[in-house]
Design goal:
By secondary structure, this protein is an alpha/beta fold. The protein contains 21 helices and 18 strands. Helix 7 packs across helix 20 and helix 17 crosses helix 20. The termini are far apart.
Length: about 525
Amino acid sequence: MGVGRALGVALVGLNGYLVEVEADIGQTLPNFVLLGLPDSALNEARERIRSAAHNSGLPLSRRKLTVNLIPASLPKRGTGFDLAIAIASLAAAGDLRPPLGVVFLAELGLDGQLRPLRGVLPAVMAAVRAGRPDVVVASGNAQEASLVPGARVHAYSSLGQLALELGADPKAVELPSADPVETASQAPPALPLLSVPDLRDVAGQSEARAAVEVAAAGAHHLLLVGSPGAGKTMLAERLPGVLPDLDDEGAMEVTAIHSLSVDPAAQRSLIRRPPFESPHHTASAPAIIGGGSGVPRPGAASRAHRGVLFLDEAPEYERRVLDSLRQPLESGEVVVHRAAGTAAYPARFQLVLAANPCPCGQGTGKGLECTCTAQAKRRYFGRISGPLLDRVDIQLAVRKVGAADLGGTSPGESTAEVAARVLRARAHQAERLAPYGLETNSQVPGRLLRGRFRLDAGSTSSLERAMTANTLTARGYDRVLRLAWSIADLAGLDRPGADEVGQALLLRQPVAAA
């Protein structure tokens, strides 16, 4: 007997690190020692592994078993090391002969079943990046793991089944009589496809529809202010439908994030459509940004990566929750610090805020039906801080829908028609921005807007006047220019002129104008 070895993966956020699991059997009294900074869930693996091995016909040695997880300085968490520890322990006893370089990722049931894990996609990605493409997973994770390019996935339903492949004595191995774990071949019936909400359902609102199109074209953030029933939520829900499908890299990123958040056996294909997250206004900061006990989990902001984060009734959220979005709006990343560790998740989303003009919601137009005091209005909108509003490119008043809009015989353009224009605009800007490593107009830094993409003085004269009148900040100046480029891309122009800059400036109406 010698030292048995196997490989696992430790996840910190979306980053995975290869972990070597080594097991040694000593000559002293029975004991099971687990070293290498395991958390409580991983410490419990000792009993799970002992029972799983016994019920698979391969009981662990009754002498002292020492398992070390390398590197010892990296905290190890969760149940994803169960299988790797079991394989290394059985190899140390001479019961198995596992090949070198194989990564084992599965939780063990007491009966020896291999159970699927959350986060198997980023774990397999880490293994492939580390040059270890051979990965063993539970059958329930087989389809998700196979999404990683270059991975050679080997799926098993039980420890006994895997042990037979690794040289165990067939006479000793016991296979479970029934497999309660859903496997890849026993996938649940597909759910019926839901129809994508169509822009044609929105009555009237030509200005707001145009704003949604510009927001989609350049990946701009959006604030819609209007009375109840004006269609703000309908417009926000239709924004993802006009966004282009995710490319391979984006789809892999989004799917990896959702792999950490959903049922571990539910993720069976790459997510190709931009996600849409709409948390309730009572959501806490950890629910939006990410957090929880142990290593922080992704929140709604990260789950909306490359999609839309919609905050309905935005002034009803706690102010600190709203302000926590300021950093990811600038960096496209969420970094959450906890005592147990730090995790970073991508969070490049489009923020859509919807709000009533005042607490009673009737403060539009002349506001004759509004019962709110001026102080109540200021306090209501004061929950959305100025620095956050300054980061929102489009700020638009949504007018009330009239009887003429509802009774109109000519509906607006469909989602498919608008999406086709958005796709052409995205292709136009992608070609222009590719030399700078950028994808959309919303990402263009100020140095490029005032340098390589500088507009002539005649085109920006309206912006100069707005800044002189203190109605536009320096950050707002750049955001109007980005909007102007998106408007030009939708129109098929090489660069924006005075008309496009003027239209962009109108898309940043003060919210008080609602």
